[in-house]
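Hi all, posting the design record for the shared folder.

TITLE: backbone redesign
STEP: 1 of 1
STRUCTURE INPUT:
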């Protein structure tokens, strides 16, 4: 192969074109663009050239090739792990044919290898694969617990295990760079990993590949690059957002990240936040002044995930299919499968009827307790013949066709969004699948007033502090993201604010089909609640000031009050 092709991502593109996507997905293979690999290699080699470099998830060795291109006269000990035989043989041939036969390529699972070996340079794009389907997951969890004391959640993706073990094998004075999904910095399962980086003082840069910068094919997850350094003196990390490969090139040239750069880049140096908080690059510098005036949404109710069937193809039926199988209405539940089935802020029985008549899949099989119904028996037999009882979720249920216990929620909220979450009043009392979460208010909560607040840009802006960022402007909230998110304390609203808010919200619901009128009403609601929040904040400040004077006396007199 020509050197110019060896030092590029053409080998990965050629290889990926020959390999079925299903096989790459099974392995969690997502190949790194060469320019990103070069940037990461420069971080690892910038201060001093490492003596031993590791790539724990080799692929075709793009990181090692990028490192070799910039340092042809300094070939350290280079080690790469790759579990797939076809991939590592292709990589071995690639390096050998280009004069680098001395590179040590190990066909093995990095996670199963000893933890003692150390490297002063680590470059990695770990496999992205859901953890629950792995056959050796229990031993992986046990190994991480044994060596680090971290008890990883089963919700953690495979890449988290690679990150932890690689960090553990980073030698004193060494540097590492990882490219991986940004979501773990905002997820509950990422908390112990963030805590580990805080405890070890190794985080130097978090580079967010922002909206519009999608370096990987076949993916929507927002990516980030973590730059780590194990030195005795920790320093505040840089939080950097880039939107194009050209901006990474600016960083790689060593230009200061400021307005004098050839291409301006957003960068902030910050004290590290708590591991328990979400790490949003854009929001971390800002702490709302009114934080004390806000309370968790869980104060007013609980957000729960929608029903996960395990096989929507089997459990969901259209009206025509319900009639075809002879299923009575007491054998099914009305449901919402997709967020675009309820595009507004209100979902009524009329909306459900429109979906039913248009033959959308709006019926959810409710077989438990109805097994003796002839139509149910026939339908269950059809499901068994099609393998529905052997899907991941269904085979772990008893009986396999049982539904999760979820009463219809009076308020729904979209799981994914681009322009902010959407809250939907569920007046039709239908069940919801996972496209929506359900909000169940505590007894006595004024749900109308809470909804009036939640539809405002003010609420959206504060809630956004708890969201997870994906690629191409896509955002996600898990149930606990919302339960822990801060909202205005509606119980403190005076009667005048409450009545005006309820009147405006009632008008908003009636005008929901009129976009201009709806926008105007939301604007009025936003002004109402923003003014209330500001007034509460000022009153609270004044109260604290008066309390200080009352307690300690007039500062000018130097006398304590009686």
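Okay, here is what came back for every position:
SEQUENCE:
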């Amino acid at each position: 192969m020509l050197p110019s092709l060896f030092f590029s991502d053409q080998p990965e593109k050629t290889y990926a074109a020959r390999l079925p996507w299903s096989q790459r997905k099974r392995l969690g293979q997502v190949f790194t663009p060469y320019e990103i690999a070069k940037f990461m290699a420069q971080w690892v080699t910038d201060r001093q050239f490492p003596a031993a470099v590791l790539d724990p998830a080799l692929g075709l060795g793009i990181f090692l090739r990028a490192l070799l291109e910039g340092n042809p006269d300094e070939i350290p000990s280079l080690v790469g792990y790759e579990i797939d035989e076809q991939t590592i043989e292709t990589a071995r041939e690639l390096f050998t044919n280009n004069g680098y036969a001395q590179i040590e390529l190990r066909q093995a699972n990095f996670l199963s290898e000893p933890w003692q070996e150390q490297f002063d340079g680590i470059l990695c794009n770990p496999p992205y694969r859901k953890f629950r389907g792995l056959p050796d997951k229990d031993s992986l969890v046990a190994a991480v617990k044994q060596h680090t004391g971290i008890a990883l959640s089963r919700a953690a993706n495979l890449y988290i295990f690679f990150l932890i073990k690689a960090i553990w094998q980073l030698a004193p004075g060494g540097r590492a760079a990882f490219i991986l999904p940004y979501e773990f910095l905002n997820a509950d399962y990422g908390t112990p990993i963030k805590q580990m980086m805080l405890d070890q003082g190794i985080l130097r840069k978090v580079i967010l590949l922002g909206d519009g910068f999608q370096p990987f094919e076949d993916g929507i997850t927002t990516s980030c690059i973590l730059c780590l350094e194990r030195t005795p003196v920790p320093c505040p990390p840089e939080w950097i957002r880039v939107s194009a490969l050209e901006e990474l090139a600016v960083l790689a040239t060593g230009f200061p990240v400021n307005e004098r750069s050839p291409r301006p880049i957003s960068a902030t140096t910050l004290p590290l936040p708590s591991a328990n908080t979400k790490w949003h690059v854009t929001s971390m510098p800002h702490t709302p002044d009114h934080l004390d005036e806000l309370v968790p949404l869980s104060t007013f109710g609980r957000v729960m995930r929608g029903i996960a069937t395990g096989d929507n193809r089997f459990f969901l039926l259209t009206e025509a299919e319900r009639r075809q199988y002879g299923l009575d209405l007491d054998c099914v539940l009305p449901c919402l499968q997709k967020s675009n089935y309820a595009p507004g802020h209100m979902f009524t029985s009329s909306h459900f009827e429109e979906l039913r008549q248009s033959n959308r899949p709006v019926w959810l099989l409710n077989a438990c307790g109805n097994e003796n119904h002839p139509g149910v028996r026939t339908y269950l037999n059809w499901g068994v013949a099609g393998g529905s009882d052997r899907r991941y979720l269904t085979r772990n249920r008893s009986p396999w066709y049982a539904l999760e216990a979820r009463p219809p929620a009076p308020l729904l909220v979209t799981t994914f969004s681009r322009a902010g979450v959407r809250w939907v009043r569920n007046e039709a009392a239908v069940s919801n699948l996972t496209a929506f979460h359900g909000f169940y208010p505590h007894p006595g909560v004024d749900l109308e007033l809470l909804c009036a607040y939640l539809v405002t840009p003010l609420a959206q802006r504060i809630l956004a502090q708890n969201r997870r960022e994906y690629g191409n402007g896509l955002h996600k909230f898990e149930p606990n993201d919302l339960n822990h998110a801060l909202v205005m304390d509606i119980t403190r609203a005076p009667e005048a604010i409450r009545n005006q808010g309820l009147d405006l919200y009632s008008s908003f619901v009636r005008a929901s089909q009129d976009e201009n009128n709806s926008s105007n009403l939301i604007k009025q609601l936003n002004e109402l609640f923003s003014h209330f929040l500001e007034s509460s904040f000022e009153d609270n400040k004044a109260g604290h000031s008066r309390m200080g004077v009352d307690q300690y006396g007039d500062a000018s007199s130097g006398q304590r009050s009686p």
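COMMENT: The longest strand covers residues 170-181.
Let me know if anyone wants the other runs.
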